[in-house]
C-alpha cells in the first residue's frame, strides 16, 4: 500500500490540535509545550513562530508524533534534546535529568556568593548534563569548575556539553566520574573550593510523582533513599572537606526538606547557620551556608 502524502496544515490549527491532545493527557503547560515542539520541528525559536504559515505534510507528521510522545508524558526536554539554564543551552539525552527552571535561583545565589573572589574554584556535585557547572563557567570565565557524577549516561552527556561550550569559547569545565560519597573524590581540591553547588537526587523512595519524573527519568537522578536524604548527606560531608574556610555551599532539595537541611548541616559541625530559600513559585527549594573557619 502506498502511503498518501499528508496535506499542509496551518500552524495555528496544528497548535490548537496539539494543545487539545496535551490538555487531555494532563500535561500542565499544553500550549507552551505545543509551541516548543512546533518550534523544534520547524527549526525556529519558540518565540518566533508564525502561526499563519502553512506547515508541510512531513513536518505535520513529525510534530504529531512528538505530541503523542509528550502526551505519553515523556519530558519536553527529552523530546527536543535541549534545555536552558543560566543563559546557555545544553543537550539532554533521554537517559539524563532535564535541568529545571528552579535551579536558576541556586545558580544565581552561587554567582552572588563568588562576587569579590577572583579565579574561584567551584565544584558541582551530581552534575547530570553539567548544565549548572557550564552555566557557572559561562558567567565566570575566570573560574576553575569541576563537575561530578556517577552515572555513565550523565557523564557522556556532560562531557559532550562541556566540549560544546568550550568550543563556543567558554572556560573549559572538568568532568569527573565519581560517587559523592567516595572519601577520595577530588581530594586534590580539599580545602580549596570557594563554592560547592549540588542539585542531588532528593525524593524519598515510594513518593508518587508525575510520570515525567517518576517514570521517564533515571531513578538515581530522582530518588535519594527512604528519606530522600542519602545523597544530600554525602554532599554535606564532601562539601565540608572541599570548601575553604568561608567557602559557600548551596544544595537544592524538596519542599519538605527545608527544615531538615539546617539540622544536617549543623550536625556536621563544619558550617555556619544555614539559610533556606524559595524558588520562583515560592516553594522551599534550596539551602545555603558557609564553611566555618574552624570545625
Ligand atoms: C537531580 S539530577 C541533577 C542534575 C543537574 N545538577 C541538574 O540540575 O540538571 C541528580 C544527578 O545526581 C547523580 N547522582 C546520584 N547519586 C550520585 C552520587 N552518589 N554521586 C554522584 N552523582 C550522583 C545522578 O546520576 C544525576 O545525574
UniProtKB/TrEMBL annotation:
Keywords: Methyltransferase, S-adenosyl-L-methionine, Transferase. It comes from the Bacteria. One of its GO terms (biological process) is methylation. This is peptide chain release factor N(5)-glutamine methyltransferase. One of its GO terms (molecular function) is peptide chain release factor N(5)-glutamine methyltransferase activity. Gene3D superfamilies: DNA helicase RuvA subunit, C-terminal domain, Vaccinia Virus protein VP39. SUPFAM superfamilies: S-adenosyl-L-methionine-dependent methyltransferases (SSF53335). It comes from Streptomyces phaeofaciens. Residues 13-81 form the Release factor glutamine methyltransferase N-terminal domain. It catalyses: L-glutaminyl-[peptide chain release factor] + S-adenosyl-L-methionine = N(5)-methyl-L-glutaminyl-[peptide chain release factor] + S-adenosyl-L-homocysteine + H(+). The gene is hemK. It holds the Pfam family PrmC_N. InterPro entries: DNA_methylase_N6_adenine_CS (IPR002052), HemK-like (IPR004556), N5-glutamine_MTase (IPR050320), PrmC_N (IPR040758), SAM-dependent_MTases_sf (IPR029063), Small_mtfrase_dom (IPR007848). Residues 112-202 form the Methyltransferase small domain.
Amino acid at each position: 500500500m502506498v502511503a498518501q502524502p499528508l496535506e499542509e496544515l496551518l500552524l495555528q490549527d496544528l497548535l490548537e490540535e496539539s494543545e487539545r491532545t496535551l490538555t487531555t493527557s494532563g500535561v500542565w503547560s499544553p500550549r507552551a509545550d505545543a509551541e516548543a515542539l512546533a518550534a523544534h520541528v520547524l527549526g525556529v525559536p519558540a518565540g518566533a513562530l508564525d502561526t499563519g504559515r502553512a506547515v508541510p505534510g512531513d513536518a505535520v507528521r513529525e510534530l504529531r508524533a512528538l505530541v503523542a510522545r509528550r502526551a505519553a508524558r515523556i519530558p519536553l526536554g527529552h523530546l527536543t534534546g535541549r534545555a536552558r539554564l543560566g543563559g546557555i543551552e545544553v543537550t539532554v539525552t533521554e537517559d539524563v535529568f532535564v535541568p529545571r527552571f528552579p535551579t536558576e535561583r541556586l545558580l544565581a545565589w552561587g554567582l552572588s556568593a563568588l562576587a569579590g573572589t577572583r579565579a574561584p574554584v567551584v565544584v558541582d556535585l551530581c552534575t547530570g548534563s553539567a548544565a549548572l557547572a557550564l552555566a557557572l563557567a559561562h558567567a565566570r570565565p575566570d573560574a576553575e569548575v569541576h563537575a561530578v557524577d556517577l552515572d555513565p549516561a550523565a557523564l557522556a552527556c556532560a562531557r559532550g556539553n562541556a566540549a560544546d561550550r568550550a568550543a563556543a569559547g567558554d572556560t573549559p569545565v572538568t568532568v569527573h566520574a565519581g560517587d559523592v560519597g567516595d572519601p577520595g573524590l577530588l581530594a586534590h581540591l580539599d580545602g580549596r573550593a570557594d563554592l560547592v553547588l549540588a542539585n542531588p537526587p532528593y525524593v524519598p523512595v515510594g513518593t508518587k510523582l508525575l510520570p515525567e519524573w517518576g517514570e521517564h527519568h533515571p531513578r538515581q537522578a530522582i530518588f535519594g533513599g527512604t528519606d530522600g536524604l542519602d545523597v544530600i548527606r554525602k554532599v554535606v560531608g564532601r562539601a565540608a572537606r572541599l570548601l575553604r574556610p568561608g567557602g559557600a555551599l548551596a544544595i537544592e532539595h524538596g519542599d519538605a526538606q527545608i527544615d531538615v537541611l539546617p539540622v544536617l548541616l549543623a550536625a556536621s559541625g563544619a558550617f555556619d547557620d544555614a539559610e533556606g530559600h524559595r524558588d520562583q513559585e515560592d516553594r522551599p527549594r534550596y539551602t545555603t551556608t558557609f564553611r566555618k573557619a574552624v570545625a
